[in-house]
Amino acid sequence: MLLTSSPIEQVSFYNRLFYIKRDDLLHESFSGNKARKFYSFLKGDFSGCHKLISYGSAQANSLFSFSELAKLKGWQFDFYVSHIASFMKQNPKGNYRAALENGANIIEVGDLMPGELLESYVKNTIIPNEKNHLFVPEGGRCQYARMGIDLLAQEIICWAENENITQLKIALPAGTGTTALFLQQYFKQQKYDFEVLTCACIGGDEYLKQQFLELCLDETQHPKILSSSKKYHFGKLYKAFFEIWQKLKLETNIEFELLYDPLGWLTLLEHLEREQIERDRPVLYIHQGGLLGNETMLPRYRRKYHAKLT
């Protein structure tokens, strides 16, 4: 399976025109930023590989995408998590459910093991005992991701040239920041006046900067991090997130996911309103998929805010 170019739509939101790169429409079961990051695994020759190994959250978007990749390639797939809630085990939903249906081995290693310790455990305890495997860090944060993201950059450049756009702002929220970083690097190297704007959804601005540095020491090639005036904790439910998600769906007729996109849009709009982003430059927002996660997020929001937001 090879990915095809995703469409770009023009929408009006908050009395401003935006372009939306619909990477959520790339493929029925393999879409969004994970499809871009894992493109090299689809296209490359990994004939000696029999098992895919990664780690993260039991509801991570990468869990489902990894399971799809393993299914397509005929690999066994082991995914290590710190904890799986008992309710989720009894009522599988979202990315967890879909990954199980694809045959993923989701291995719980300990409630008290935070992300950094989980990463160390997998790298230092599991990987040395494995053979004929492919190990991919959490969320696809590795150089393998560059091929698919370069392809995304080329699609954006082709579209911009057809639209006679020479200066462009490209916005997307970040987890590890891999997509934003490799996009900005490509535009810099090809000498396009395209600036990538992102915001930290996990761990704050300093954490995101560190993720960039692990993949690229040249800070001149890093994306611009937009700081939010409010502190949000990843995975926590916020009324403002649900409200902007609803408004986006109503005004653009596009469904976004509920973990990253609300903060991405709130932060982007905040900087536009403060005129910290040039208002005369077109803005392209990348829809990175992840909609399967809404299967669990929406019921949580409705339970918490049902009386106020119906």
Automatic annotation (TrEMBL):
Name under which the protein is recorded: 1-aminocyclopropane-1-carboxylate deaminase
SUPFAM superfamilies: Tryptophan synthase beta subunit-like PLP-dependent enzymes
Sequence similarity: Belongs to the ACC deaminase/D-cysteine desulfhydrase family.
The keyword rRNA-binding is assigned to this record: no
Keyword Cytoplasm: no
Gene Ontology molecular function terms on file: D-cysteine desulfhydrase activity
Cofactor: pyridoxal 5'-phosphate
UniProt xrefs under InterPro entries: ACCD_DCysDesulf, TrpB-like_PALP_sf
N6-(pyridoxal phosphate)lysine found at: K34
Domain of life: Bacteria
Keywords for the protein's UniProt record, in alphabetical order: Pyridoxal phosphate
